[in-house]
Specification:
binds zinc ion, five-stranded antiparallel β-sheet, 219 residues
Length: 219
């Protein structure tokens, strides 16, 4: 799908947005054309419309968070290499991880509506656990303000995600840190074990702090 880059007037310094890929567009230097920053345009070649009732399982796996924040998505136990569309919502790859950290931080998710385009709001990265009242609409790129601080995730409008239950247990993640999260079961495993603490380079860290920090820039 081709980029559809539009200019936004008076938007706090954020001037260009790609409507196709829900991502900001920038110039690497003044002589270059404006390009969209989306890192997985290939997924947008395969937009899959699904009915939420036809989805029994959504699982995400970060194969090794020590090395990269690449994530794999599995829907109904099959790897999903496209962009999921549920009714009016286009679920971006980052939105699954945003949901995971919101749930881990016991956030009550309530999506707001963008006054410019009517798009519903999803927060990810550090915004998935930091309540705020200035949201950036990723459908149109406009900033907008709401009265009361909140955190939203469109996925939570279609499913009733259980809270994540963690066991009092520790995993050493020096070799690798594979995170697998089953959204509809509320099951989160690190290297195949359920735990609330991690040990990295002889230092202990709780899992919520670790994942908040590791995914803070994934927005
Ligand atoms: Zn684009
Ligand atoms: Zn909007
Ligand atoms: Zn927001």
């Amino acid at each position: 799908m081709k980029c559809n880059i539009k200019h936004i007037e008076k938007n706090q310094g954020l001037e260009h947005w790609c409507l196709t890929h829900k991502t900001k567009a920038t110039k690497s230097d003044l002589t270059e054309p404006i390009t969209c920053d989306c890192q997985y345009k290939n997924l947008y070649e395969n937009i899959v419309v699904m009915h939420p009732k036809k989805i029994d399982s959504i699982k995400i796996i970060y194969p090794n968070l020590n090395k990269s924040t690449d994530v794999k998505v599995f829907i109904n136990n099959q790897e999903f290499t496209g962009i999921l569309k549920l009714e009016n919502s286009v679920i971006d790859l980052k939105d699954y991880g945003g949901l995971m950290i919101s749930k881990l931080n016991n956030i009550k998710l309530e999506s707001s509506k963008c006054p410019y385009c009517g798009g519903l709001h999803t927060d990810n990265g550090k915004f998935a656990y930091t309540p705020h009242n200035k949201h950036l609409c990723i459908y149109c790129g406009h900033f907008y303000k709401i009265e009361k601080k909140n955190i939203g995730n469109e996925l939570a409008l279609y499913f009733d995600f259980p809270n994540i239950t963690l066991l009092d247990n520790k995993q050493v993640i020096d070799e690798k840190c594979e995170v697998s999260y089953d959204l509809l079961k509320g099951e989160l495993l690190i290297n195949n074990a359920c735990c609330n603490n991690l040990e990295l380079n002889n230092k202990e860290i709780d899992i919520v702090t670790f994942l908040n920090k590791t995914l803070e820039n994934e927005y």
